[in-house]
Amino acid sequence: MTEVSLISSYDALLADLDGVVYAGPHAIPQAVESLERLAGAGVALAYITNNASRSSEQVAAHLRELGAPATAGQVFGSALAGAELLATLVPEGSTVLVTGSQTLIDHVAAQGLIPVTSAEPTPAAVIQGFDPGLAWKDLAETAYAVAGGAVWVATNTDLSIPQTRGIAPGNGSLVAAVTAATGKTPVVAGKPEAPLFITAAKHLGVSRPLVVGDRLDTDILGGNRARMDTALVLTGVDTAQTALAAVTDERPRFLLASLADLYEPYPDVTVADGVHSCGAATAWMEAGVLHLRGQNEDLDTWRAACSAWWTANPDTTSATQPELAMSDGPRVLAEDTQR
């Protein structure tokens, strides 16, 4: 085990929000305290969100209400990432049809682009983000511009968003409607694509960020695509078992029980004679079965399991849950029983 804390190897933490900092109306246990310790450790903090309808200050104010350290300059949403991505695709001064919130309009204008509200004449580009006030005519204008050849950027493609009354269509559902009408697909800025993470690191001026999130298919995949180290924290959606079964592109480098684990040495996984060991736990493959020796509730068991299974299956494009054999005893090879 490395004797220095995990976070000491990084100069920034790029943290997801829901499932990492808070769950519903409440902060997740140990999250606020862990985030407050970052400044003393000399580690920059950024919050990464696909939300493109709220301003950075609105998000920061919500975090401060929960007790978390947050300023507008620490919040990076897909609206900013989308506008900055768009600015690399069209010349300064280009007209852009903005389908989304005032926050998105402001970010587009800040890039030296000209926001417009109509697809006639055809603008140079379209940027599409979520806003609860969007209507059919807004999607129609988007479709007209895209069909007319405008560059198309989507802030994110989240199919759904949680609301007080239940699950509602997200920006991805609205983007899908335009795709259905035009047969085209946009360039995407938000998670699980890389630009949002790259934007945050660039603004912070850091080179060794650690991405932490609770979802494999957005946080971890996006961080991996940005070529950053990733940590799955088990306080939200995904579990150690879903991480074990994850496709290659969604596999995190670290498994954390909570953000407090950032300040502990991360246990090494060693491999000898095909046996993967982490702490007191071991894992090995035999006849296609993943054998585990350790306690189910011990995260080291799953760290060893992931190492063994991922080594045996380095390139997978579909989530596959291995057949497991749990044991509290020592490893017994099949050939040992025949001696």
Detailed description of the structure:
This protein has a 6-stranded parallel sheet. The chain is α/β, with parallel strands linked by helices and 339 residues long. Helix 3 packs parallel to helix 4. It is built from 10 helices and 20 strands. The longest helix has 14 residues. Helix content is 29%, strand content 23%. The chain has 3 domains: 116 residues, HAD superfamily/HAD-like (Rossmann fold, 3-Layer(aba) Sandwich), CATH 3.40.50; 110 residues, HAD superfamily/HAD-like (Rossmann fold, 3-Layer(aba) Sandwich), CATH 3.40.50.1000; 69 residues, no CATH class.
Which shape, going by the Cα principal axes? globular
What is the count of structural domains? 3
Characterize the main sheet: 6 strands, parallel
**CATH structural class of the largest domain:** Alpha Beta
Low-confidence stretches: 332-339
From the alpha-carbon coordinates, what is the Rg to the nearest angstrom?
Answer: 22 Å
Tell me the CATH architecture of the largest domain.
Answer: 3-Layer(aba) Sandwich
Please state roughly what percent of the residues sit in beta strands, choosing from under 5%, 5-15%, 15-25%, 25-35%, 35-45% or over 45%.
15-25%
